[in-house]
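Troubleshooting: if your tokenizer reports a length mismatch, compare your output against this known-good record of 446 residues.
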Amino acid sequence: MGIGQRRAFYPGHIGSLHQGYQAESGSGFHKDRPRPSRLLNILTAIGRTKNNELGSYAAPGDNAAGSSTPVSVRDLEIVAPNFTRRLSGVTSTLERILPVLARNARIAALGPGLAPSTPKMSVLDLPTLWQKPAVGDYRIWHARRNIEMLAGVVLRDVLGFPLRLVFTSASQRHHTRWTRSLIARMDGLIATSSKTAMYLEHPATVIGHGINADAFHPAQNRAAARDELGLPDLKLVGCFGRIRPGKGSDVFVDAMLRVLASRPGVGAVLVGRATFAHTDFLEGLRAKIAAAGLNERLLILPEVGTSEMPRWYRALDIFVAPQRWEGFGVTPLEAMASGLPVVATTVGAFPEIVADDTGILVAPSDVEALAAATARLLDDPGRAAEMGAAGRARVATEFSIETEAGKILEVYRALLRHPSAAEASARGLDGLPLADAEYSHSNQTH
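Known-good structure output:
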């Protein structure tokens, strides 16, 4: 069955598909394993409450605080589910891209834990989507996780919601049978890199992530930026993200132990969160740092929200992305937009992002190479500054968030058979003008 081709789909299929997935012995990370019984109960309840009551969703306002303006859910063109409370790369992506997409389309996120600047709808208003939109026959359901694909399939094929399903994949690995079965039911696919597209069995549009270069910009005064965050007044090397082996957190710490030992004017900071499963891993890192007597210069600090991240980049001199595995990996782009040179591993989309004049690439898990590359930039501040300037220029020309949003909108329009981008640039996907008060967004809010 090719992509977009449908066969009869019944509630019982959810359990059978999931049982096959659990029994599978193939490779792949099972971090997004859905709970089919719980999802089925929720969606069945929704199916029983189909009604004609119109709900509303909140579009971020035009002020710095990101206040919301209620808008009819009936007018929604795109729903972006976010079925997790934890901050993750996918959640950060939604917080960045949705306010930009909302300038030219009626879009809302569905789910918890998103920034105030993100347009949202309530789960209580989900039954309203059973009705056709105000204009046109379908809405877009844009999933980024297995559980969100499954929800879209059930809403469309079991409950009869008028949806076109889109899935964005950042994964650079062979998909499990469970994931492949869901992907085959999508109407459109987006891959975040050309390498990611190679792992999909169906045609996909390659759209790399973009960065808001107004929010992420170089520091005017790094010492002041460090002081504002309570960081030591040292040259700082930083690494941001989940604290776990796959992210190479231990490689970063081991490399920094080598670099800092002979450079008393340099510090390092690892900002992120370890899940319960990686508590012992985190404690092992802390023990290494303490044993080296570097508690004052090699800091492990808690995770911070997406909107706060630009301030942390501005406190750094060098950014390190030490991942052993990565889907896309947006942190090097954020660092480059912030005017920083980057040391990154050759995983994910990093080789497509980090050019020779913007940073240094090393093999994953190579502590010595990572330490040597970082030391080279610390010891040659002129070269580091040149790389930082080149990196920002590269982001502006090739990785802007406006470019990403425009390409995503083209995928939506192709599925909904709406006007061309030129014709629809000042209108919603349905061709109706967008109200300035509801869909105008400051760059500073996302």
